[in-house]
Amino acid sequence: MRLLIISDTHVPQRARRLPGEIWERAEAADVVVHAGDWVEVALLDELERRSKRLIGVYGNNDGPELRARLPEVARAELDGLRLAVVHETGPAKGREARCAKAYPDTDVLVFGHSHIPWDSETGTGLRLLNPGSPTDRRRQPHHTYLTAVVARGELTEVELHTVDRGAQ
C-alpha cells in the first residue's frame, strides 16, 4: 500500500495550486494523507476526486466549510498499521512524550503545522511524521512531502522528497 503524505498546502494563499508532481503521486498512491491547513475546500474536493483514498484533518487555517467535512483527528487501520492524523502537536520540545501519551494505540502519527519535516520514534514505538509543506517552505530550504509503504502492519520506505519547483 503506497502512501503520499502532505500537509500545509495553503492553496490558494501560498500557492495557486499543488505542484504537478504532487498530483501525480496522489493519483498513483493507494492512500493520500493530508494533515491540515488546506485553506480552500476546492482542494479537498479535487483530492477526493483524484485519490483512491483520502485521509485528512482540518488545520488552524481551515474555516467552517472544511471543519464541517474533516475531523480534528483522523484514525485509520491500513493493512494492520494503526494510523492517526492531526494538524498540531505543540512545541518540538517534549513532542515525543506528549504524543506517546495522547496516542497510545497508534503506530504512526502524521502531523503538520510547523512546515518542518520531522521523523522520530518515541520510547513506546510510536513513529511521528511531519511531511513539511509542498507549497510553503517558510524557513526551510525546500518544499517537501513524504512517501511511504505499508505492508502487514509495518511502515517502510519512508522517504522525504523535495519538490522540483522548476517542473511546474
From TrEMBL:
Its cofactor is a divalent metal cation. Its EC number is 3.1.4.-. Keywords: Metal-binding. Residues 1-149 form the Calcineurin-like phosphoesterase domain. Pfam families: Metallophos_2. GO terms for molecular function: hydrolase activity; metal ion binding. Gene3D superfamilies: 3.60.21.10. InterPro entries: Calcineurin-like_PHP_lpxH, Metallo-depent_PP-like, Phosphodiesterase_MJ0936/Vps29. PANTHER family: VACUOLAR SORTING PROTEIN VPS29 (PTHR11124). Belongs to the metallophosphoesterase superfamily. YfcE family. This is Phosphoesterase. It comes from Amycolatopsis albispora.
